[in-house]
Amino acid sequence: MKRFDCLKILASHLTDELAVVALGGLIDEWHRCRPGNKNLYLKAMGAVTPVAFGLSGALTHRKVISIDTDGSMLLNMGILATLGNERPKNLIVLILDNECYEVIGLAPTHTAKNVDLAKMAHGAGISNVATVRTLTDFEEKLKKALNSNELNFIVLKLEPGSEVFPEEERKRTNGEEDKYNFVRYIEDSEKVTIIPREVKSIRKIQTSYAWDK
Amino acid sequence: MREEMAEFVRDGLKEAGIDTIITLPDSRLKELYPLLASDSELRYIPVTNEGEGVAIAAGFWLGGKKPVMLMENSGFRVACEPLARLGLTHGIPVLMILSDVGVIGEGNWWGIAHGITMEPLLKAMRVPYIIVKHKNEVKDAIKRAKLHISTSLYHVAIILTGEITKKQ
């Protein structure tokens, strides 16, 4: 099962859902599948699912999808225990598990051997856990998760490999821009202020000082 | 920490508009945690390590909430990597409140390391911080720090020490 094919299926089922996206070859693929500001690209291994959980807690009426990876989840597994206790109803965690650190030369992650992230998630207290190995199975489990009102955790077992795009079709924004794009989208869609406007500078002109003398 | 001081800090957090508490509890602020956990106006989320905690706090901020990460100062060491990524790479800020383990007068030998590393690490991470020693500084510090993370788009730390954390 290829990651790009999974992402195409995922994007085809999304409307207003918020996505927090891990790093690696995944970025340009997701940018192709689902351009726009409802995605937060996060250059922070180990922080992807925690940030997605925070978002789901802040915006309980929105569905949040953590598009995380095996390497990133392995870096900070405590979040499984927190999720198992908190059980946010509007969060779906997808682990794109290619069993390796692909961009640095396919060095295996621990999931290539004995580690089963789905069983660990289940052991941590997450009830709706699945491992998928085919596109049909993924689409079925994804649809179920999108329609459910419970925390879902799906491990996608993938073969290594990334799509290559012409330079001009790759995501060109940096981490600051990605943050601003996402925050402005949240501010507009949720009618909230996250980054405050500057203090009002055009004030009623009123002074007791006689400037003209 | 005395009970009345814990109540004062809780009130300061609420008056500043803090609505979400992410925490890995520590001994110096232990009287504060039950007060926050039992307050129906606050969302209280215990975590497994401080690196996870600051990332969760960042997520709440991105969703328009006003979170704070409450932890022992040793937790700042744990949190440095996600804080660097969130703050320096993305400009996604986290407000932190740290206890003061290891300051001069520390009774626990194991706490000395926390005091040695706290301020140099805060400086290395370019995190502005307020050291709060007196009761009359608490509410102003929380209010200013909460605003500052959203205008500077970078982390701010408040260190509670002196008469705030003393037992008697």
Q: Explain this structure to me?
A:
The complex is a heterodimer of chains A (213) and B (168). By secondary structure, chain A is an alpha/beta fold. Helix content of chain A is 38%, strand content 16%. Chain A is built from eight helices and eight strands. A six-stranded parallel β-sheet of chain A has the order 2-1-3-4-8-7, sandwiched between helices. Chain A has a two-stranded antiparallel sheet with strand order 5-6. In chain A, a hairpin with a 5-residue loop joins strand 5 and strand 6. In chain A, helix 1 (3-12) runs parallel beside helix 2. The termini of chain A are far apart. Chain B is α/β, with parallel strands linked by helices and 168 residues long. Chain B has one domain (3-160): Thiamin diphosphate (ThDP)-binding fold, Pyr/PP domains (Rossmann fold, 3-Layer(aba) Sandwich), CATH 3.40.50. Chain B is built from six helices and six strands, in the order αβαβαβαβαβαβ. Chain B is globular and about 40 Å long. In chain B, 48% of the residues are buried. The chains are: A alpha/beta (213), B alpha/beta (168).
